[in-house]
Amino acid sequence: MLLEGHIRKKDLFTVRRGETLWDNVLEEVHPAAEEIVKVRDIDGGCAFYDDTQKACLIYEHRPSQCVALECWDSSKFMAVYATPKLSRDDFVKEGVLRELIREHDKRCAYEKLASLVQQIESKGEAAVEQVVEVLKFDYHLRPFVCKKMGIDPDETDFFFGRPLLDTISQFGLQVIRQADGTFFLTALENPQENSIC
Description:
Low-confidence stretches: none
Helix content: 25-40%
Strand content: 15-25%
Strand order of the largest sheet: 1-4
Order of helices and strands: EEEEEEEEHHHHHHHEE
Shape: globular
Number of strands: 10
Mean pLDDT: 86
Distance between the termini: 22 Å
Structural class: alpha+beta
Oligomer: single chain
Number of domains: 2
Number of helices: 7
Largest sheet: 2 strands, antiparallel
Radius of gyration: 18 Å
């Protein structure tokens, strides 16, 4: 549907490998084992659901998991759920952008962040500084790529996943941006509030 133009990149976001998510089928929270491209939610619901019309705006061109979703019989949905998921590589063919995505995935990997967060207790400020450097790279790369490559800022969640400043909460942390632009990493006041999709 994306390749045919019915769904735009800005209507999607990428859950990167290792990002914590709620699995509706398994009914549990766990790190994503693989990359997943998802339709963006608006107020907890599908971006393509029109509440006024009580209808799907892209019904004739909806994704395969929506086609397979039948309340009375989950077998079709489970069959789709078991198939390989689309990834950014299925859509991003440009060499430079593809390389930037790979570099971002390497420098901002959730496994790397998890390791650095675990080191905070033993290494203290040195580990905190490394976490902040990863967060800064993610934060600054997005507008840079938009400016240099002419990408719509609303598409960056598709290309680079959700911003780490938002998803760092999965580690019980938050970033407070200071007036001078610096990042202050601190523990979440309520660790139950994390960004699980």
